[in-house]
Amino acid sequence: MSASRPDIVCPEAGPEAPYPLRMEGKVIAGFGRGSKELGIPTANLPVDAALTPWIATVPSGVYFGYAAIALPDTHPSRPAGTPAGGLGVFPMVMSIGYNPFYKNTVRSAEVHVLHAFAADFYGAHMRLLLLGFIREEKDYKSLEALVDDINFDCEVARKSLAREAWRPEAASAESAAWLVKPL
Ligand code: ADP
Ligand code: RBF
Ligand code: MG
């Protein structure tokens, strides 16, 4: 049983200030805790407050929005029609924080892309458009409870983004253009 919390968050009419928030970088190796084996691989980005000033002051927790990934031209999961060198756009849910369940001492940013990829994409450039906040970061009694909550976050993100005003173009034409801008 998952969470007595709503399965859709944020207003029907679309994202509100301070969103959209942007972040980008190259996908790095994470903590190697086997997130993939749990069915929730997370693409980690470096947390650098010099490049991403807002990250120092936002609350730790779970955010949702879109990820644009520059998958290599040879990657088996490039969306059909992506031009050479182009970025593919996918819905995402992400964690920013210290992962109290694991007692990290540095803040991490990790993105679970809501798409089944046929291969990894370490080293790929990834842009993120954060459109809203789902919940605060929590500690858990068990790994199973953590995974259940993350799976519910995925459902919340999918349903919340499926609304008309939450398409990237509807949320912000300028940010939607930034998302897929050639590198
Ligand atoms: P790490 O500890 O190195 O981050 P993970 O088990 O979290 O390892 O796996 C993350 C990697 O899995 C990503 O860097 C990416 O290359 C790959 N991956 C495959 N599918 C996804 C997905 N749907 N979302 C995020 N990363 C994915
Ligand atoms: N870790 C925590 O300790 N507490 C959390 O509340 C938490 N929420 C998360 C939500 C999402 C959507 C994702 C992708 C990760 C979250 N994590 C959280 C991080 C988690 O501990 C990490 O991805 C592990 O590697 C999973 O095994
Ligand atoms: Mg990871």
Automatic annotation (TrEMBL):
One annotated GO molecular function: ATP binding
EC number, UniProt record: 2.7.1.26
Residue runs in coiled coils: none
Keywords, in A-Z order: ATP-binding, Flavoprotein, FMN, Kinase, Nucleotide-binding, Transferase
Pathway recorded for this protein: Cofactor biosynthesis; FMN biosynthesis; FMN from riboflavin (ATP route): step 1/1
Riboflavin kinase domain boundaries: 16-162
Keyword Kinase: yes
Reaction catalysed by this enzyme: riboflavin + ATP = FMN + ADP + H(+)
Gene Ontology CC entries for this record: mitochondrion
Protein origin, superkingdom: Eukaryota
GO annotation, biological process: FMN biosynthetic process; riboflavin biosynthetic process
Top-level EC class as recorded in UniProt: transferase
SUPFAM superfamilies for this protein: Riboflavin kinase-like
Family: Belongs to the flavokinase family.
Function description: Catalyzes the phosphorylation of riboflavin (vitamin B2) to form flavin mononucleotide (FMN) coenzyme.
Protein name: Riboflavin kinase
Organism: Tolypocladium ophioglossoides (strain CBS 100239) (Snaketongue truffleclub)
Taxon lineage: Eukaryota, Fungi, Dikarya, Ascomycota, Pezizomycotina
